[in-house]
Amino acid sequence: MMDALGILATASVWAATLRIATPLIFGTLGTLLCERSGVLNLGIEGIMTIGAMVGWLTVYRSGDLWLGLFAAALIGALFGLIHAVFTVSLGLSQHVTGLGITLFASSLAYYTFRLAVPMAASPPTIVPFQPWRVPLLSDIPFLGEAIFVQAAPTYVAIILTVIVGYVLVYTPLGTAIRMTGENPHAVEAQGLNPIRIRIWSVVAGSALMGMGGAFLTIAVFNSFFPTMVQGRGWICTALVVFASWKPWKALLGAILFGLFDAYQLRLQQVVAGAIPSQIFLMIPYVLSIAALVVSTQRARVPQALMQPFRRGEH
Amino acid sequence: MLTRRRLIATAAAASAVPLLGRPVRAADKIKLAGIHAVPLENAWSSRVHAALTAAAKDGVIDYVYSESVATADYPRVVREYAEQGVQIIWGESYTVEGDVRKVAAEYPKIGFLMGSGGKPQANNFGVFQTFNHEAAYLAGVMAGKMSKTGVFGTVGGFPIPEVNVPVNAFRLGVKQTRPDAKFLIAYIRTWFDPAKAKEAATAQIDSGADILFGERIGTADGAQARNVLSVGNYLDYTPRYPKTVFANAVWMFRPIIDGFIADYRAGNPMNKDYSSYSLMKNGGNELVYAKDLVTPEAVAAMEERKAAIMSGKLEIPVDASNPA
């Protein structure tokens, strides 16, 4: 048996942390990319849902897990494009459009699922991604089991975080994206097209969100349920603020949230009965809010976030 | 299946029936509307839907339904079906007791059968609880015989009577064959998050559990990943997890709906609690187990108690208290 602190000394809690964090890493990274270019994307919850559905359905029909992940990214990108057309090209309210995208994408996922799959008590299954033992690294005592035995998309999420972080900070493209989020008029003065930059950022960010949703249906679980994203998209939206719009902090935030969740699930078992279970379920959220308060003291919000860019208007 | 045209056609046909001078409550098909608050993949809803679909196939009812009806829309949808001329409305009034009861009072000729934590009312409002506790108890009896560690986990949705009753019955069964049993419980506080249920199951396995009562779907996935056993709730999960789910506390809704329809046809008052139609001796719940996963001792212990339940010698209490 474990005690409250001993939980952290088990490899299992760290493995669970990464598992729980993976959809959040994808989603937070996607949100970050959108917001860094100046576009709030509240369509995330719906995009994750339809990503979960399309990813699963693709695997169900084709049997190819990577194709499923790709299809989820593609459908995410498509909904990102819809969001971008309304919010960037037409300059409409980002809040209203985002929520509309969430409602539309979730309902469409549900509807398509009903049409595509016969009604069953327990929906059909696929063979999901299995935990993959990274050669050599997974043999390291403790660390191996804790970090290097995960479903493959978890590593994809971490690698993508590194890539997005590098591109944003060290490349001209990244500078252009960040600049568009700060002052699109200055970007235009440089001879770049802020509208195009925003559209592509939202499309790419939404593709990541779609992959985050698909992780739930093709790696953690093996079926799609219409309401299974369960607010993870909103958590990502908050995590970006926690991360002060920095990719490495976004990764840290998602992992921290995963750790709190994995920890409370185990703590519930150790001190069973002594504390009401509601308290445990609050822990990840309360700790995240606490971390948010501390970390956002110095956070720099992209200055042009939620401000539509209209040519020639200041 | 359900189309607007067919709905209108059946409604029109039915409204013509009195004109022919025949009694409304003759042996014709009853028009029944099912109003589900969640998607039909929800385990509990799927059992009701299966029973109603089977009744429709048998020619007992004409079944129309809506799913995922939000709480705020629920009374409106009830009213719409009532206005369309259905004869029986099945629903779940847990979160909308006051509103649905008000609507029911306005349509005294329609029979209302509601999954509910409340009491029956007027002449037309019957209620039922989900009684699969006898099968859950028998699953516990088997589990007690089969566990190596003596630690039994449970992953549930919310601590409400519908969840607590089978969980407590499972534990009662375990204690009879494993007096030194230790119990764990985790609530995920949602009906539909398999990823979270799986993580909760994993946490319980980390705490030593080697048999998990899967009140929520996702539990058995955690058990499967770690090669321990699991018990299914409401429906038979063994085909989905052939090496993991060794027993299922299966709930059958058909006896309840048949009982309600019989009262409706006979013109009896319908303000009853129909839960007892789901008792094992009435064919309302049963233990389904996987022969290749269980031990002969477990089966013997279970069969002995099952016989006692069927003969009425053994009564499993309906204990809705929060399991600690």
What secondary-structure arrangement, pairings included, does this model have?
The complex is a heterodimer of chains A (314) and B (324).
Chain A: H1 11-36, H2 44-62, H3 65-89, H4 94-116, E1 131-133, H5 143-147, E2 149-151, H6 152-170, H7 172-182, H8 184-189, H9 194-220, H10 232-242, H11 247-270, H12 277-295
Antiparallel strand pairs in A: 1-2
Helix pairs in contact in A: 1-6, 1-9, 1-10, 1-11, 2-3, 2-4, 2-9, 2-10, 3-4, 3-9, 6-7, 7-9, 10-11, 10-12, 11-12
Chain B: H1 4-16, E1 30-35, H2 43-57, E2 61-66, H3 74-83, E3 88-92, H4 97-106, E4 111-115, E5 125-128, H5 133-146, E6 151-156, H6 161-177, E7 182-183, E8 186-187, H7 194-206, E9 211-214, H8 219-225, E10 229-234, E11 245-251, H9 254-266, E12 285-289, H10 296-311
Parallel strand pairs in B: 1-2, 1-3, 3-4, 4-5, 6-7, 6-8, 6-9, 9-10, 10-11
Antiparallel strand pairs in B: 11-12
Protein described:
The complex is a heterodimer of chains A (314) and B (324). Helix content of chain A is 68%, strand content 2%. Chain A has 314 residues and is mainly α. In chain A, helix 3 (65-89) packs antiparallel against helix 9 (194-220) and helix 10 (232-242) packs across helix 11 (247-270). In chain B, strand 6 (151-156), helix 6 (161-177) and strand 7 (182-183) form a beta-alpha-beta unit.
